[in-house]
Design brief:
By secondary structure, the protein is α+β, with helices and mostly antiparallel strands. The protein is built from two helices and three strands, in the order αβββα. A three-stranded antiparallel beta sheet has the order 1-2-3. Helix 1 (2-30) packs antiparallel against helix 2. It is elongated, with a radius of gyration of 18 Å.
């Protein structure tokens, strides 16, 4: 069990780190993120540094949805990563490995 949990923690950590880097790149490329953005009618806006100025700027529905899920994935993966790491260390100490 300890070994399986340790492997899961390693895999989730690698995925979480890659997701974090890809989120940084996407936010830089897109000029912000949808979680801080807004929807006004049928128009979608990201919030962030667009052309050097923090502002809302309009994007397509697909870009907005991508940005939102990209950020939400961080909210899921990072806590999961920490829980798995802590559980893995705790179980390995209890079992004496």
């Amino acid at each position: 069990m300890s070994r399986l949990l340790s492997q899961a923690a390693t895999i989730v950590t690698a995925v979480a780190l890659l997701d974090f880097v890809s989120c940084l790149i996407a936010d830089y490329y897109l000029g912000g993120d949808a979680v801080n953005g807004k929807i006004v009618g049928d128009r979608y806006y990201l919030w962030g540094p667009y052309h050097g100025i923090k502002t809302f700027h309009e994007v397509s529905h697909a870009v907005f949805t991508f940005s939102r899920w990209q950020t939400y994935s961080l909210f899921i993966l990072w806590p999961l990563m920490f829980v798995l790491i802590i559980a893995s260390k705790w179980i390995s100490r209890r079992s004496g490995f």
